[in-house]
Amino acid sequence: MRILPTLLFAAAFLAAFTSAQAKTACALPTPCEVTGENGGTYYVAAPEDWDGNGGLKPFVFYHGHSGSGAGVAKNKGLAKSLAEQGYLLIAPDGPMLRYRNRETRGWPARVQGEIKRSDRNDVKFTEAVLRDVAQRFKLNLDDTVISGFSSGGSMAWHFSCYSTMQVAGVVPVAGALRRPHPNNGVVQADGSIARFCPGGPRKVVHIHGWSDKQVPLEGRGIGEWHQGDVFASLDVQRRTNRCNSRPDMVEAKGPFWCRAFTSCETGQAVKFCLHPGGHGMPQGWLETGLNGLSNPGN
After folding, report:
1. What Cα–Cα distance (Å) separates residue 277 from each residue in 209, 226, 273, 285, 287?
2. CA dihedral 250, 251, 255, 258 (to 10 degrees)
3. Diameter of the chain by CA atoms?
4. Distant-in-sequence, close-in-space partners of 174: CB < 8 Å, separation ≥ 6
5. Angle between the 151-162 and 230-241 helix axes, to the nearest 10 degrees?
6. Paired strand residues for 204
7. Fewest beta carbons within 10 Å, which of 8, 52, 181, 293?
8. d(CA 182, CA 196)
9. What is the DSSP letter of 141?
10. What Å distances lie between residue 27 and 4, 71, 90, 222, 233, CA to CA?
11. 177: which residues sit within 8 A by CB, 6+ positions away?
């Protein structure tokens, strides 16, 4: 009879330890790793009261150039805001790249030609991360939102266009679909080449600064590659979603000037929101992005 309380205490301690271990897996300072040809590391930032067992929606956020997954995971404001919306912050590490005679992390975020910046397929890497997260934490990947800033915003576009994985939507910030754009090899009636995302239609809310000179709306050439044009990116997505070319909603609300294309045969809307600032993440971007995915016409 003396052993029973001890056993009960041990069982309770083990359950608490298992819960805490699940909660802290992949968290700072120790990342989780997916292995294989397209392997790499990632972090999660979870609410303090989360037991690591389902109940949250995945939110992938790609860091900018010279950033890191750890840097994103340290952003307590972002993690807190996402937690309040019911999301788990997932922060992948970009591959190491050679840039201006130094090694740094970034995202090639484009179909690479003969001159490669990285041997890893970052779309397949992200898909592997999401499968790993789903298994560890029992999350539904259909609820996933893909986002990122600057170079990471371009990676969000790249994943959106080339992955076939089902997700809830994509919110790129200050980064466009980089060239070369998809070429489906079909000559259309007007003589142009059909450009549709191989991954199929997506809900997309793109957020960009009118005064952005780092990643201007028109994009800019950097060496042998080009950042891409925001308007061309939106055109590719609208064609993929089979939307009308005329916006169904145009509004100026607070710091955001938005236009939404909701009359899309696929049922997947596209929304574009400008703000007057430069290369940054304006206050309210997250709420604007998530609301745009669920209510694009508002």
Report:
1. 5, 22, 12, 12, 17
2. -20
3. 86
4. 149, 150, 153, 207, 208, 209, 212, 214, 215, 279, 280, 281
5. 20
6. 170, 270
7. 8
8. 6
9. G
10. 35, 12, 10, 34, 34
11. 154, 157, 158, 161, 228, 232, 233, 236, 237
Print pLDDT tens along the chain (298 aa): 444 444 443 444 334 333 443 456 999 999 999 999 999 999 999 998 898 899 999 999 999 999 999 999 999 999 999 999 999 999 999 998 877 778 889 899 888 766 667 789 999 999 999 999 999 999 999 999 999 999 999 999 999 999 999 999 999 999 999 988 887 766 666 766 668 999 999 999 999 999 999 999 999 988 777 888 999 999 999 999 999 989 999 999 899 999 999 999 999 999 999 999 999 999 999 999 999 999 998 8
Residue 231: which of 172, 177, 154, 290 has the closest Cα? 177
Best CA proximity match to 37, nearest among 112, 152, 121, 134? 121
Strand extents, DSSP E, 63-165: 87-92, 96-99, 102-105, 145-149
